[in-house]
């Protein structure tokens, strides 16, 4: 994913346009695409700001969010459950399909991590409850 132009550059481009320069001239002056200058000027006119919009999926969305309580309760009840086993239980009990990697990322975001027990088996444990 590409990064955003700095707020300073965005302000200079829109300032150039507001001082009478054309949008395409601003693009040439600041070495950005014409479409960038046009969209920035449009954004300033509509919202009064040139700050970039938030990117990415909003927190609390996604297909696993509705079953978060089930996943956390299952892992806390059976810490040594494997991700493929958890994926299978999720499909059977809730009809939601998820890959083991997706489940692992989901649990890591909620504070779970792998820990090895003295017998060498891996278990999931919450690092900060």
From TrEMBL:
Keyword Phosphoprotein listed: no
GO molecular function (one): DNA binding
Residue ranges occupied by any Paired domain in the UniProt entry: 1-112
GO biological-process terms attached to the record: regulation of DNA-templated transcription
Keyword Signal: no
Keywords per UniProt: Paired box
InterPro entries in alphabetical order: Homeodomain-like_sf, Paired_dom, WH-like_DNA-bd_sf
Protein name as it appears in the record: Transposase
Native source species: Methylobacterium gossipiicola
